[in-house]
Amino acid sequence: MDEKKVDPTFACWFEKKGTKPGTKWQKRWFIMEPTGQLSWREQPEDASEKGHINIADLTGLSADSRLGRYSMTNSGFQVEKSKEQKPNSPHYVFNLKHRKKTYHLRTDDLEEGMKWLRYFEYLHNKLTARA
Fold it and tell me: What's the rounded mean pLDDT across residues 24-48?
């Protein structure tokens, strides 16, 4: 992704699911800063965040949609057939693997999901190249 073409900040609604058994999907407003900080709030106008992670600290990322599975490897992103999602699934599901836990996000907007995936990949590569 060309740095000059990247939006300075991405923001949209995602549903987020906790890792504990029985937790349900909850709608949250997500903000991705160009610094790599991904934060979420209950509402866009909320001053305080519910949580945040840094994309540079991810140990893995996968995204499932009806188009297949994208996963982050040491050599970049690859596409493989998805066994987790049904071909007619309306969701685009992200699994962000962090040192502490895995975050599950989803959207029904395939185009928005692809946009975020490209931005995750771009920022992760940019931020980890500096280290």
Answer: 94
CATH number (3.40.50.1820, 2.30.29.30, 3.90.226.10, 3.90.180.10) of 3-130 reads 2.30.29.30
Q: E strands along the chain, which residues?
A: 10-17, 26-32, 37-41, 51-54, 58-65, 68-73, 76-80, 92-98, 102-107
- Summarised one tens digit per residue, pLDDT across range 43-59 is 999 999 999 999 888 88
The answer to whether 7 and 32 are in contact (CB under 8 A) is no
Confidence (pLDDT) at 38: 94
- Given pLDDT bands bounded at 50, 70 and 90, which one contains residue 8? low
**Domain locations in the chain as residue ranges:** 3-130
Backbone torsion region of residue 103, taken as left when φ is above 0, otherwise alpha when ψ lies between -120 and 50, otherwise beta: beta
- What mean pLDDT is predicted for residues 79-91? 59
* Nearest C-alpha neighbor of 94 from the set 84, 22, 42, 86: 84
State the Cα–Cα distance between residues 24 and 21, nearest whole angstrom: 9
Residue whose pair of structure tokens reads 């997500």 in the numeric block: 30
